[in-house]
Design goal:
Number of domains: 1
Structural class: mainly alpha
Number of strands: 0
Number of helices: 3
Helix content: 40-55%
Order of helices and strands: HHH
Shape: globular
Low-confidence stretches: 63-68
């Protein structure tokens, strides 16, 4: 991949993982990321409630219409989840 550096490639991989996970869970990525980042930065979502912001748990805010449709319209048999070890960015 042409990311310029190993660090940039890692950040690109994280961003693409977030976007694809949102899509696989039927969530419009831009609406989800915008809403989640606003909630985290503003402090409206407490640490104990971060699980509610994951794509398979996320409920778009009522004003999300400005970002277009929040849920993608394609048939799904089940919601996909990322294992917790993938979300853990701590390093040994």
């Amino acid at each position: 991949m042409f990311a310029g550096s190993d660090g940039a490639a890692e950040h690109w991989a994280i961003a693409m993982t977030l976007i694809q996970t949102a899509k696989l869970n039927g969530v419009e990525p831009m609406a989800w990321l915008t809403d989640v980042l606003e909630r985290v930065v503003s402090g409206r979502t407490r640490i104990r409630d971060l699980h509610t912001l994951l794509p398979w748990n996320w409920q778009g805010r009522s004003g999300a219409a400005e970002y277009g449709q929040c849920r993608l319209n394609f048939p799904q048999k089940r919601r996909l989840k990322i294992p917790h070890f993938v979300l853990d960015q701590s390093r040994p």
